[in-house]
Amino acid sequence: MAGRFAPRTARAALPPRTGAPVRRTPAPRAAPAPPEAPPVTREWTPPGPLDLRVVLGPLRRGPADPTFRMVADGTFWRASRTPEGPGTLRVAARGGRIAATAWGPGATWLLDGLPALLGADDDPDAFAPRHRLLALTRHRHPGLRLLRTGLVMESLIPSVLEQKVTTDEAYRAWRHLVRRFGTPAPGPTAELGLHVMPDARGWAMIPSWEWHKANVDAKRSSTILRAVRVARRLEEAAAMDLPEAAARLELIPGIGPWTSAETLQRSNGAADAVTVGDLHLPGIVGHALAGNRDADDAEMLALLTPYEGQRHRATRLILLSGRTPPRRAPRMTPGDIVHL
């Protein structure tokens, strides 16, 4: 009997008879991607002359910065990670007014901060030039205002990458890490190649070999990893006065006065955040104000004493003047962390 009847399970596995309909369960369809929210716009009239190139220039980390672009028509693009999420901001000057468009979850936050970004909180009249060079430069650049992004980590991390290396090395590292671990910026940015930098968790998850590929040594990568663990606390510094903000940042091992000043100049619009510990700045200031290209930090600070409260603005004006000493020594040689 067992040979005459196939088991029920085997019969179910037999192919259907010829001509019998075959029922196939349709494959589940992937959920469509949610449509991107439409852009939001804003127009703003600055309180005085405004040079977008000069004001926004400090945000650019090299000519191929994946978070910043200036296109031929004078329009500026910036990709940021805001408290509300990723956002892209496009800014252009239009007949004395500023026209801005923003995309992404952070769009409204970026437009709300547009005046501060372009120096509305800055007070250029607080600066009283005591040197003819600075008076002439201010006259030639009436559109200089000190920007304020309100975002600490987006300036802190590239500043850490710039510690003790050439700017070209730091720019390459920033490009590699943002493109590799960031996200494409919202809006019509594909042709521009804009990316938003990783969030704190994204930075923390970067494996050691990727830091190596970016030529970032263990000291700088460890500093960044320590910082992102307390990113929320560091972001609070954007609302603090300069001494308290600098103290908050410098609690992190590996962040000293140079890095905190470079960060707070951008995040807080800190007019007095003078950069000490820089390889070139003391000689530039010394050459411009006293004809001494061999000035050190102490002499630089002494020369800037008349500008207490506005020392960062004074150094911006010196750099804009073009009065820099000719190089007489080779530039710093790019390093290779394999040999460090």
From TrEMBL:
UniProt keywords, alphabetically: DNA damage, DNA repair
InterPro entries: Alkylbase_DNA_Glycosylase/TA, DNA_glycosylase
Any one Gene Ontology cellular component term annotated for this protein: protein-DNA complex
Keyword Methyltransferase attributed: no
Stretches for region Disordered: 1-49
One term of GO molecular function: alkylated DNA binding
UniProt superkingdom: Bacteria
GO biological process annotation, one example: base-excision repair, AP site formation
Feature: compositional bias, Pro residues: 29-38
Record protein name field: 3-methyladenine DNA glycosylase
Species this chain originates from: Streptomyces violaceoruber
